[in-house]
Amino acid sequence: MPEAVTTMKAIIQRVTKASVTVGEEQVSSIGRGLCVLLGISVEDTHRDAEYIVRKILNLRLFEDENGRAWSKSVMDKEFEVLCVSQFTLQCILKGNKPDFHAAMPAELAEPFYNSILENMRSTHKPELIKDGKFGAYMQVNIQNDGPVTIELTSPTGPTDPKQLSKQEKQQQRKEKTRTKGPSESSREKGGQRSRQDPNASSGAEGDVSSERES
Q1: pTM for this one?
Q2: Which residues of the chain have pLDDT under 70?
Q3: Whole-angstrom Cα distance, residue 91 to residue 124?
């Protein structure tokens, strides 16, 4: 039986405000935006980090100027992000006792975590990315807006470059399909089925509508 593969994990919360305090000192705070609790696993690579950063900054968790929900990302709205390193997200229970061996060791995790912050700052606006204090005992105060909480993990998959390239192309096709209007997408899929097999049912193999990503 193959061993379980650990992945990078993030708990993303839409907030009206959030802050981190160490002892009596408030080390960072944000207004409306996202608070991200990030758990780095011992097996994570920069590919996992790039995926998580891209998703955090592009998740459409905010309303647009007309009040339509789930339309704008933190980058679209130029909101802040408070990122807090949290190794406990890599917990594996042994009975009732938490085990954290799946978490990346602190001496490796700290520079890795800092590189994630730098990636966020270079992609978004540097002054809008805040963080806690790595390795410290922190009090994290979160005023969840909604509440809205998204659990995110980096994808597991083959390490062969050809397979990875194939996966990325499939993901791009799915994302492109989701950006089309419903009627346009339906007409296109219907036309494809008609060309391939005029008797094909709506549940035909390859129907793009069966592939959804949260």
Answers
A1: 0.72
A2: 1-5, 157-214
A3: 30
Instruction: Give a three-class secondary structure readout of 28-76.
Output: EEECCEEEEEEECECCCCHHHHHHHHHHHHHCCCECCCCCCCCCECHHH
What was the pLDDT predicted at 165? 58
* Residue 164 tokens, joined: 């990875």
Angle 46-58/106-123 helices, nearest 10 degrees?
A: 40
Report which of 62, 30, 8 is spatially closest to residue 140, judged by C-alpha positions: 30
Residue spans per domain, the chain: 9-156, 161-197
Distance of CA 205 to the CA centre of its chain: 29
Task: Check if the beta carbon of residue 138 is closer than 8 Å to that of residue 132.
Answer: yes
Q: What is the sign of the dihedral through the CA atoms of 192, 197, 203 and 207?
A: negative
Question: Which is the CATH superfamily of the domain at 9-156?
Answer: D-tyrosyl-tRNA(Tyr) deacylase (3.50.80.10)
Residue 185's pLDDT is: 46
Tell me the per-residue pLDDT of 107-161, one tens digit each, with 9 for 90 and over.
Answer: 999 999 999 999 999 999 999 999 999 999 999 999 999 999 999 999 875 444 5
Helix ranges (DSSP H) in the chain: 46-58, 74-77, 106-123, 161-179, 182-196
